[in-house]
Amino acid sequence: MEINLNDPNIMDAGDASQIWGHAKNYVRRTYKSNPSKFPQGSIRKFGKQWIVTTEGMEAITGVKDPRRNEISIKR
Question: Helix-turn-helix domain: from which residue to which, for each copy (predicted)?
Fold first, then answer.
């Protein structure tokens, strides 16, 4: 399986938190308190950096990717 690190569905947890309208530490706090909310393979820590997928964010927030709305509006 090839992974494209330029995929916009893979993002820094702090940036993802802000995209979904939460504090920068939202993903880290949520993972520490309830790791089972994240689908398998949707979050990972690399050194000190947390990386999360769109799927993971949608699972913990219950909100679809807000960037999709921006794309629809721009068209």
Answer: 7-63
Provide the whole-model pTM.
0.86
pLDDT tens sequence for the chain (75 residues):
788 989 999 999 999 999 999 999 999 999 999 999 999 999 999 999 999 999 999 999 999 999 987 655 555
Number of Cβ within 10 Å of residue 30's Cβ equals 22
Phi–psi pair at 65, nearest 5 degrees: -55, 115
Instruction: Give CA–CA dist 36/27, Å, rounded.
Output: 13
Residue 9 CB partners (closer than 8 Å, separation 6+): 53, 54, 55
